[in-house]
Amino acid sequence: MIAILPFVLATAAHGVAPVKTVVEVRVPLVRTGYDKLLKLRDPGKDIVRRRDFYFDAFDGDRFRLKHLELPIKARLKDAGDAPTFQTSRSRALGRVEAAGLVAALAEIEDEKDSLEQDLGTELLVVSGKFFDNLLRPGAPILDLAEQAHALLAKGDWPGKGVVTRAREDLPPTRLFPAASNTKERSIISLPRPRLAKLSVTLGRTKALDETGAPVALYEVEQDGPAEGAEERARELLEALRRAGLDPDDLGGPSPDAFLFTARRLRE
């Protein structure tokens, strides 16, 4: 039985959307696994593409929120329409094994809402310039990081309260851009005997590793309530096995672009 953690992400004072808690079942893939599953994409569902910008508390040496006991992730999401901001905290719940495959479970609490138009536009522009410069050796990035910090300090955004409280327990920090990636998300339908097909999300992410080199990540994920999460995970793994996946199709790297950004900020 999975017990829900009493998170404290409440930020109702900012007038934003209510906090949502789910248990995520995630199966990391390598490219062969992704290619096998992409053939099962639901043709009636569009591929969702977006770019995410992550922000974290930088203490002059490293980013701190990502490495808390309960990591905090704050990100701006740009899918081409009104940008949204999402703050989440997660707790690893362990792994589930079935059919020779393995899934990771995590309890995630997040708050997400659209930003006030001017704040969203300005933050997108500054963040885009920051990450454009990040990969150009010698290009200035600190001033752009400070601009992002100023925008986040004066504006309201989902999860601002919990980020502020977390920073109060840390040495002095600035809320700087930490990483950026682009994502593609597709809905795939996995066959199940005597049951309706199982719909899950297939993802591909293009990111940077800790050296600044590009890397591609692949995964299958499914969100749902805590109740029955382990059973859902086993059902997903069994469906993936029937779809032709084997243990060699699972895995992949675990890059940390935050390390690369921190190194560039220290230069």
Quick overview:
The chain has 267 residues and is of the alpha+beta class. It has helices spanning 31-38, 117-134, 142-154, 160-168, 229-242, 257-266; strands at 20-29, 48-58, 72-78, 84-98, 101-114, 174-192, 195-208, 214-224.
Structure summary, number of beta strands: 8
Q: Please indicate the count of domains.
A: 1
Question: Any idea of the CATH class?
Answer: Mainly Beta
Report the mean per-residue pLDDT as an integer: 92
Determine the strand fraction and express it as a percent band: 35-45%
CATH architecture assignment: Beta Barrel
Helix content: 25-40%
Strand arrangement in the largest pleated sheet: 1-5-4-3-2-6-7-8
The helix/strand series, from N terminus to C terminus, equals EHEEEEHHHEEEHH
Please identify the structural class as seen in this structure.
alpha+beta
- Rg of Cα set: 19 Å
Count helical runs.
6
Shape: globular
What's the end-to-end separation, in Å?
A: 48 Å
Biggest sheet character: 8 strands, antiparallel, barrel
Q: According to CATH, what is the topology?
A: Hypothetical Protein Pfu-838710-001
CATH superfamily label: Hypothetical Protein Pfu-838710-001
